[in-house]
Amino acid sequence: MCKINSKEELLKLYRNVEGLLDLRKQSIAGKAKEYYISVCGGTGCTSSESLELVKELNKEILALDLKVKVKAEITGCFGFCEKGPIVKVFPDNTFYTKVKPSDAKEIIESHIRDGVIVERLLYVSPNKEIKRKQEDIDFYGKQKRIALRNCGLINPENIQESLAARAYQALANIITNKVDPMTVIAQVSASGIRGRGGAGFPTGTKWKFAAVQPKGKKYVVCNADEGDPGAFMDRSILEGDPHSVLEAMAIAGYSIGSDEGNIYIRAEYPLAVERLKIAIKQAEELGLLGDNILGTDFSFHIKIKYGAGAFVCGEETALIHSIEGTRGEPTNKPPFPAVSGLFGKPTIVNNVETFANLPIILLDGPEKYAAIGSEKSKGTKVFALAGKINNVGLVEVPMGTTLREIIYDIGGGIKNGKKFKAVQTGGPSGGCLTEKHLDTPIDYESLAAAGSMMGSGGMIVLDEDDCMPNIAKFYLEFTVEESCGKCTPCRVGNRRMLEILEKITKGEGSIEDLDRLTVLANNIKDTALCGLGQTAPNPILSTIANFKDEYLAHIVDKTCPAHACKALLNYKIKAEKCIACGMCARVCPVGAITQSTDIQGKLPNRPAYVIDLAKCIKCGSCIAACRPGAVYKD
Amino acid sequence: MVKTNKEMFAELEAFIAEHNNDSAELIAILHQAQHIFGYLPKEVQEFIAERLKISAAKVYGVVTFYSFFTMKPKGEIVINVCLGTACFVRGADKILEKFETLLNLKNGETSADKKYTLTSLRCVGACGLAPVVQVNGKTFGNCTPASVDQILGQYK
Q1: Residue A391's closest chain B neighbor by CA?
Q2: How far is A277 from B31, CA to CA, in rounded Å?
Q3: CATH superfamily of A31-137
Q4: For A625, nearest residue in chain B (alpha carbons)
C-alpha cells in the first residue's frame, strides 16, 4: 500500500473504505442479502477456541459457495466473557453465545443460507427470556462504550477497518493544520479526562508539565503493564483497537514535542503484543507513523518494550527503569518523569485506556466528553467485572453509575443465588466495599471516601462463601511477593502483617494482633517509598473497618464464618443423607474416608461413610464428589 | 531438530547485534535468550554481560528481579495455575493443591525426571473462564479438582 501524504488523501481513503462497516451499522430484521459475521478474538474467547471457530465458519462458507453473501472475521472483545465465545451476525445483529467450532455448520446453513436463526445459541436471561440482539441483553443496557467503541466492531488486524472508524483523523487535523500544542493540551484538559491507570491525575496537566520543559529529546510512554490480577481492560483495548492507542500516542508526542513513544507491555499478553506489532507495521506503511507523518515535518516512532512479570513496574518510575533495561525499582518523586524520566529526559506516562479515549475526544470535541460523568470525574470508565458474579466481563459505564447498577443490572447479580458480601475495587491497592456502599456513585472521590479506590478498573465481587481476613491475606501474599525490596516499610512491614494474618486465619491470633495490624498498616501507608507499598495495607484496613466481626470470629471464637479457612473447619458426613455410594472414599487422595460398620445411613443396611479427621487434609474433593450433598463443612 | 550449544549462542549473538549491543535492550535480550535456551544459566548471563559491556552482576540482578526469568531448566510439561483474584475466589487454591498432591511437587518445582514443572501466575486475563490452568500454553477453563485428573490424563 502506498503512503498517505496529506490530510486530503487520508480523507479520500476514508471515504473509500467507510463502506466496509456499512453492514455493521445497520439494523435489519428478517432475511438480508448480505451478512457479516464477527467472532470475538480476545484472549477469553480465543482460549475457548474462537479462532478455530472462524476457520470452521469460513470452511462452511466455501463449502456452500456463499462467499459473495457472507464474510466471517475476528473482532475485539465484546465484553461478555462469561458467555464466550461470542458471535455476532450483522446486519440483523443476532448475538450468539457459547459458540463452539462444531456449531459453524449450523450457523452458516441455517442462518446465512436459509435465513433461520439458530435459537439454541441465543442468550437466555436469568428469568428465562430468550434475547436475540445484543442491545436486548441487560448486560449492555447501562453501558456506554467510548474507550471500547471499536471493540467488537472492527477487525483489529486490518487498518482499513480502523480507518473506516475514523482512525488517525484527529491526528491529521492537528498536525496538518499545525495546531498550537498548547491548544491541543487545553482541549485535553477541557474534556476533564483523568488518568485511567488508577490515580486519576488530570491528563492535560501532566502533558503541560512535559510540554513546558526545554526543547530536546522527550518521550511518550504507554503503560500497558496491567498487573492487577483479575483486570483485563487494557489488554482488551490493545487486542481490539490498537490504532486508537497509537494515534493518541502520536498526538501526545506532537503536544509535548516528542518524536518517540514506547509501549511497555506485560509479557503475559502475547496476543496483544501480536496485534500491536501488526498495527504499528500497517500504520508505518501508510505513513501514519514514522518519519514525516502525512507529509508534515512531524515524525513519531513507536517501539514495544516488554515487561517480565513484576507488578511494581506499573508504577511509573519503576516502569521507566525497566524500559532502561534495569531492575524495575521505583525512585522518589520529585523529580517527576515530566521533568526527568526515561534516560533522564522529560517523559509522560499514560495508561492504555486514557490514550484510547483521546482520539474521539479530540475529533468530536472535548465538550461532548465532559458532558458525560459526574462533577469531578468526566467520561466513562472500563471495569473488568469478575468473581462471584453471573456476567463476568468487560463493562464500560459513565462515571457516576452506582456499584449496585454495575453488579445487579449489568452483572446480573450473584452467582448461584448466593448472598452478596463485598466488592473489591482497585486490586491489591484498593479496598472492599459492602452492602451499605452499593449506592455509591463510581468516581475517583466517592470511592476514595468510601475507603477504596478507582484503581485501574478491576472489580471483584465476593459472596457469603468468601472469608474477608482470607481475602486480605490473599492480597497481602501478592504484595509481599511483588515488593521490590528497596524500602524497609514495604519489604519488612508487609511481611510482618502477612505473618499476623496467617496467625489469625489459623485461629492463633489475639485481640492485640488486631491493634498491631492497624498500627503497622498506618505506618506503612505513611512511610513506604512508592504507590505499591503505600497502598498495600488498604485491603487490610478496609476489611477491618467493614468486617471486624469476621476478624473477631477468627480470633475469639476460633471459627471462620465463611468456612473458607482450612485450619478452622472440618469436613464431616451427615449420616442421614449418606447413600453409601462410596464416591467420597474413591476420590479421597489420602484414604481418610471409610464405610462405618454401625452408623445408620439413608438407606437400610447401608451404613454411612465417615471421615477420619486425623488423616483428612481438607482438600474438598469429597464435597465436590458427593451427589446427595451429605458432606458438609463444620 | 535439537540445536547445539554453539548454534544457540550464535543465535543469541546475532540477536544482540541486531539490537546494537545496547544495554537498554537487556530485558528483550533476556527474553530471547530464555526462548533459545529454555532458561538462563550462568554462562548465558556472562555471555550477555560481556557483549553488552556491563557487569555480570547487573545481568544477574535483572534476571532475579523479574519473575518471568528462570535460572533453572523447566520440565517438558509446564503447568501454570492462575492465582489471579478472579480465579482465587472461584477456588484456584484447591486446583493448585490437587496438582501438588497428584504430582508430588510444590508450586515452583520441577520433577526430578524433568517431565513436569508446576508453577502459578497472576492473571492471564481469561477471568470469564475462572479458575484457569494453562498447560504448555493451552488454556483450560472452569477447572474443578476433578478436572485436574482429566487434564493430567492428557499429558502423560
Answers
A1: B128
A2: 17
A3: Glutaredoxin (3.40.30.10)
A4: B146
